[in-house]
Amino acid sequence: MERMRKIGLLVLISFLLALIICLPLFNKWLNVLLRVSETERKNNKGITFSIQHEDNPLNKELQDFAALYNALIENQKEGYKYYEIYPQYLENFSEQKEFYSAISGELENQCSAIDCIQISKNVIDDFHIKILKGSSLLENDFILKKDNEIPILMGNLYSSIYKLEDTFIFTYLYDDYTFKVVGFLEKGSQIDSFDYPIDLDKYIVMPSFTIEDNVEITDGLKIHYANKTSGIIEVLEDNKEIFYSVVGPLLENADVGTYTWSIRPMEYAFEEKFGTNIEIFQEIVWGIVFLTFLYEIWLIKKLSKIAWRGKIKRTHCFFLYGLLISILASIFYALIQAVYIVVLGIKVFSLAHFLVIGIVAFGAMVICRVLQNGK
Taking a C-beta distance cutoff of 8 angstroms, is the pair 117, 87 a contact? Predict the structure, then answer.
């Protein structure tokens, strides 16, 4: 009986060890996904709403998109900031030019999807994007005039490949444009998008331009304006209702189709969706987890009784313990994973976490077996 208690203690220790290893990783994800990140605190940011146009823009009128865009810009005085941040790749069909692929991340000739992001002027100012050489994008660069070149900034890794004033012909949203390099970014330049920071070292940064009246309207420009109105609204934490009183009605009344939006930090999205504080939800989840843990201990105890009654060979008993602990520990975390995916739409664990749990728990059972053989 004494030996059985020691074995049970080792089982418990192995399970707790798996928890200790994985819970910091879990909490790190939660701090990023559910709370304002350290970066956001340093930048004194509040709540962000990511807007997305959901309908086919080709069936809409460009002037209606333009009217909505102008309204979003003009109403910023009500207490919000509107940022245009939209990754939309470029296409290159030249065999002599190499660009970083949005698919592989490697330098490629005839690149069918070049990493590129379209931004507004205030992104350069507020996100402190610094230039290594050349110049930044100026106010006039954000207006597309007929037959004009589009000025671009290139990520740091391009600085050893190309030079200032190089020109390229890219396909952007089905239309061909001439692009001219006006500057290269400092190494490690980033833009904090809605969900994660975008490392710009391999990116081309182009202005999210408006068009003049004499520019021919194309399907590509309609998509471009749908992207321009799919930006990010930032409000202070104590002023989040401004989105629902000002921005929401603009999106709903615009004659360009349906818009959806997401909120960060996640705690505010949860409160909007369910009308309750996210801490209550977390307490419920951890309550379920605790009950699951008790159930697992009961299963282990039951298996132990079966084993010591001779129904399972003792030589196999500890390996069965190890396998059971590995499976149950993975179920333990899979339960948390499933709840967060279903309720919040976020993934908090990777397969590596489950692998660590299994290896640690099974390894502890192997040690247990060795210790028994040594007695």
Answer: yes
Q: Which residues are CB-neighbours of 266 under 8 A, at least 6 positions away?
A: 33, 34, 35, 278, 344, 346
Which residues fall within 8 angstroms of residue 277, CB to CB, at 6 or more apart? Answer: 267, 270, 271
Rounded CA separation 205/185 (Å): 9
- Rounded to 5°, angle at Cα 259 from 253 and 264: 120
Radius of gyration for the chain, computed over Cα atoms and rounded to the nearest angstrom: 28
Q: To which residue do tokens 């520990």 refer?
A: 329
Global pTM reads 0.68
* Cα 324 to Cα 335: distance, rounded to the nearest angstrom: 16
Quote the tokens at residue 104: 């592989």
Would residue 174 be called left, alpha or beta, if left means φ above 0 and alpha means ψ between -120 and 50 degrees?
Answer: left
Write out the H or E segment, with its range, that includes residue 199: strand 197-199
Helix H or strand E encompassing 2: helix 2-34
Instruction: With CA atoms as reference, report the closest residue to 134 among 185, 91, 96.
Output: 185
Measured in degrees and rounded to the nearest 5, phi and psi for residue 101 equal -75, 135
H or E element, residue 116? strand 116-119
Helix (H) or strand (E) holding 149: none
Q: What is the full per-residue pLDDT of the chain (375 aa) written as tens digits?
A: 555 665 565 556 555 555 555 555 555 555 555 544 444 444 445 788 999 999 999 999 999 999 999 999 999 988 899 999 999 999 988 778 899 999 888 988 888 899 999 999 999 988 888 999 999 999 999 999 877 789 999 999 999 999 999 999 999 999 999 999 999 999 999 887 766 788 999 999 999 999 988 888 899 999 999 999 999 999 987 788 899 899 999 999 999 999 998 887 766 776 777 766 666 766 666 666 666 566 666 666 665 665 555 555 555 555 566 566 666 666 666 666 666 666 656 555 555 555 565 565 566 556 555 555 554
The CA angle 158-163-169, to the nearest 5 degrees, is 80
